[in-house]
Amino acid sequence: MEVRESTGVQARTNNGMIRPQSFRVVAGPCTVESYEQFEASARAVKEAGFSYVRGGAFKPRTSPYSFQGLGVEGLRIMSEVAGDLGLKVVTEIMDPADIDVVMEHAQILQIGTRNMHNFSLLKRVGSAIKGSKEHGVILKRGFAATVEEWILAAEYITSSGGDNVVLCERGIRTFEPSTRFTLDLSAVIVAKRLSELPVIVDPSHAAGRRDLVVPLSKAAVAAEADGLLVESHHEPREALCDGEQALPVEDLMTLRETLSPFASAMGRQVI
Question: How sure is the predictor about 59, in pLDDT bands with cuts at 50, 70 and 90?
Fold first, then answer.
């Protein structure tokens, strides 16, 4: 293994996203579709008691004919709505040319599974957030990447100066067709043993179906994860992207209460 063995040092974060003895929930729609749609979904996140909202402005889609997001206009909507509600923004970045504008509107830059091996992007993002007390990175695991490759990808960011990195397990491709991907919770534990970086779980993309999101979230707590990245939408059936895996408002409202006993048993508090 080329990765560095964990030194047992406290997980490195300096923007408050991941805190000791806490279990962070980041929620929100897959994609910003309009001001009204994002405002309604973000307000539900706020009312559920969470302080980080996610949303996509630049969306990588398998089909070039699928909705790709609103781009910079989506970023503006997110930052305006989140600012009004006192929330922090998590959004995906795909192109190094967009780093400045994404950092202007979001606190956490998400690098998705398709770009885990985009080493130029990883290095540019690491340099961009170097020394920042406001910004961090969520790095999703590639759906065909080993844990070692995932951690080494994170080290492209940290070796470029970005020391506020959170790993995200989002499911890997297997022969099992009953879920969109297979959530690999053992990878969460292994990654935390091999790295001092915090690890969160995305049960939405792993399952691809909302009825499994809450049970997998409970399992993520037990697997020592540091938090969740979960999709929610005020009207999932009307969503332009991934509505089948988004939690409706009523489930989002009860998520904290549902997870709290599991988090408490692990010595953590859901935030």
Answer: confident
* Confidence bin at 10 (pLDDT 50/70/90): very low
More confident residue, 163 or 89: 89
- Nearest Cα to Cα of residue 230 among 249, 215, 217, 239: 217
Q: How far apart are CA 165 and CA 109, in angstroms?
A: 10
